[in-house]
């Protein structure tokens, strides 16, 4: 593998220098791999992770359509229709009705609001893998990964994810949020460990450059890193490579990191991966990509945006999630072996969290295999994108489309019409998006049909006019605005 054979980066050398300091202080946190006993299995037998045993299919199947359907309790549906979505009193009363099993009526809708992009949530192969693991292994994780929870199932999942991302190693988490928090904290701890001081000089600090619209988990992780005293934070304009280049050029810090989402979840636009790779060559920064919405959806094998734009070996660390296109739950960090050791020792959200249960990990492993082999699902997403563009004229850059409305109450009114037409969408407002940019966020999936797209395109075309929000560079992004 190319990334494994290349010379060590300066960042690997920093970590190599810092790890012995953890060992000398007895603060290195080793993983404790173990196999768990399987019901009915002979002593000494190994769990089989043969990918050929995972059944896959070509083309949409009857169960796939179930992944695009949703049922709303009639009381909640009525609350949406009455414009009472943001009221807590009605929510309490509604929950009381549902929890007491008094709710008898449901409204069937087609789902356009989820992140099950490939439609794997009803796939029988994944369900069988989860059920088999539960029957054989129980429900446990039994502990944290540093105590007794790190099993051969977790190691197998890490291995298949590392291969997908073309990296040496991988570390799995209970969520993508936890993965970003751990990584930012781990980066922020390098200088204090190397210098032995929580107050290093400005020049000694790690300069981290973050896209203005990065996910909240990155933002919160960076706040934690700043609190540790070893980081100086710089925010660059959204996807603006000229601004990033200027900030990198002006910065005198030796250690530089650039962190960005690959596909931005509320706007659907992509980071300029090729230009970022070029800037990395120019400035020599450490490149971190959060590929939560790109993994399994983009790239020939589902390797994400880095694979799509042929810059997998330029990305130093890739963060991903298993709770979106993989239709499971959890997060991961794909990186070098030495970085894995550093993160597991300094990432607080990893150290102090119980690891994912074995059945869930088994389902995630099956999802990775199925997602890679059933490449037709990625093609179907592209087909839905083309159809949506043809019917609305909206330039569709990814599987996420934002119809910008502006005022949150106005967005709720527009969303009522979508829901009333049998299309489940959600009006999104602050703090998830900036003030006065409330929107209807639509997701296009592999298990929606051409007829589904026609129905939603008719409504979108009724409202959409082209205008670019002021915080978006018009040369890179166009949103539909009411």
UniProtKB/TrEMBL annotation:
InterPro entries: Aminotransferase_I/II_large, AON_synthase_class-II, PyrdxlP-dep_Trfase, PyrdxlP-dep_Trfase_major, PyrdxlP-dep_Trfase_small. Its cofactor is pyridoxal 5'-phosphate. Keywords: Membrane, Pyridoxal phosphate, Transferase, Transmembrane, Transmembrane helix. Residues 109-457 form the Aminotransferase class I/classII large domain. The chain crosses the membrane at residues 350-371. Belongs to the class-II pyridoxal-phosphate-dependent aminotransferase family. BioF subfamily. This is Aminotransferase class I/classII large domain-containing protein. It comes from Hibiscus sabdariffa.
